[in-house]
Amino acid sequence: MASASLFILFILQACACLFFYTVGAQANIKVSAIFSFGDSILDTGMNNNLPSGRCNYPPYGRDFPGKVATGRFCNGKIPTDLIAEALGIKDNLLTGVGFASSGSGIDPLTSSTLGVVAMSQQLQYFKDYIGKLKGVAGEEKAEAIIANSLVLMSAGNNDIGVSYTAGSRKLQYTFPAYVIQQSQLYALGARRFGVLSTVALGCEPSGRVAGSCSMTANVGAQTYNNLLKAGIATLQSKHSDAKLVFFDIFTPLDNIASNPHQFGFQNANLGCCGGVGSCLPFTTLVCPDASTYVFWDSLHPTEKTYRIVVSDVLNKTLSSFS
């Protein structure tokens, strides 16, 4: 992907002078950069040059700074942006590199069926990035940047929501592969991991049943999340020099989608754009105010929802990185 390579080189110019940010009020945490891997929850535009699975067109980005459709599956900012804000990283140039792809699965097979960047390819991009970073900043400083960065990972939403739920592949296959990816990132020098659970898959507009969250889909998601949490604990026990923290985004999103009015929302059954279908390029089927909707499209929350979810998660987990 030519654009991805250019983006990485652009970021490298900033990495030579990266400095540490401190989260003062919440914990004494120093973060050199943020790297994101996984699926559309964290995708900041990795998919823009793919033939499918992209969203770099209006009305996506309608409420993003500059009203630009950057490739984020949202009306505005996504968890990657909001976590960077919470860490005090105000300059987007210094937030790190986003390798996350719209539907990235934890194995190449998902990539071939969904037309996205598989996790294995994302890892290769990260390896290439580290090599270039060492050339710009020097080996010692590059290793420090990677070790003091925060790696965000989100996977399982497509593998569980599509592959597992549809029965084409089993949970037992996909979950160990995800743990292997974390181990590979550790081997590359990463030491801080924020690992996102799946979203509340049964509460998405496309998955609801008669206006209510699908219990079947949510039980499948929670089964995966429980195994993921246990797997993270196992990895943590093997790597005492690392911090692997489970980010539970399922619970707050389930609470919001099940009780929208308590959180100031008017609609949780439909996506602001497209309702229960796709948010098509330049469509006029879009609500006037996304802040009244829990979901932006049939699968992804609005920025307002993400802000509530991210705040909940960070309030419970940031101290774990100190």
TrEMBL record:
- What is the residue range of the signal peptide feature? 1-17
Positions in coiled-coil regions: none
Q: Name one GO molecular function term.
A: hydrolase activity, acting on ester bonds
Keyword Iron (UniProt): no
Can you cite an annotated GO cellular component?
extracellular region
Q: Which CDD domains would you find in this protein's record?
A: SGNH_plant_lipase_like (cd01837)
Q: Does the keyword section mention RNA-binding? A: no
> What keywords is this UniProt entry annotated with?
Signal
Family, per the entry?
A: Belongs to the 'GDSL' lipolytic enzyme family.
This protein is called what? Uncharacterized protein
Q: Which organism is it from?
A: Quercus rubra (Northern red oak)
